[in-house]
Amino acid sequence: MRIRSLAVSAMAIALVTTGFSSTPATAAPSAGAFISNGDRVHVSSTPPRTASAHAWWIKVSGPGTKAKVTIWLQTKTKNGKWRSVAKGSKTVKPGGGSSRRANARKTCANAQKTQWRTMIDVDIIGVNDTPEKAYTAAVTVKCGL
Q1: CATH fold for domain 29-144
Q2: Residue ranges per structural domain of the chain
Q3: For the chain, N or C: smaller number of CB within 10 Å?
C-alpha cells in the first residue's frame, strides 16, 4: 500500500510542477443509443416547387433530451459525386412529427430528372456523440437545379 501512495504522490508532484492539474476534467456523458432518421427527398406539396426532405431522431437510451438535427439536401453531379445544395437545422426533442424535425428545401429551376439524397447529423445537446452521419437512399425527382 505504501508503494502505491508514493507513486501517486510522485505523479501528483510531477503534474503540479509541469503545470497540469491532478484533478481530472469532467467529461460530458455519452449519448447512449439513438437513431438518426429522415424521409426521402420529394417535391414539396406547398408552393413554390421545391425539393424537400425532413430529418429527426429517436431516442433508444441515454441522458439526452434534445438534439440539434441538421439535414443537407444533396444532388449527384455529372462526375458522380454528391454536392450539398441546401441545409436546414433545428433543435428538437426526439420522435419526429411536424414539430420535432428539421427541414431542408431547394427551389426547383426546372422539371429535369435529378438524383437527390440527404445527409443527416444528430448532435445530442450536452452529451458526447459520434461524428457519423446518416444518408437516405438516392431517389430521382423531377426537380433540376
Answers
A1: Immunoglobulin-like (2.60.40)
A2: 29-144
A3: N
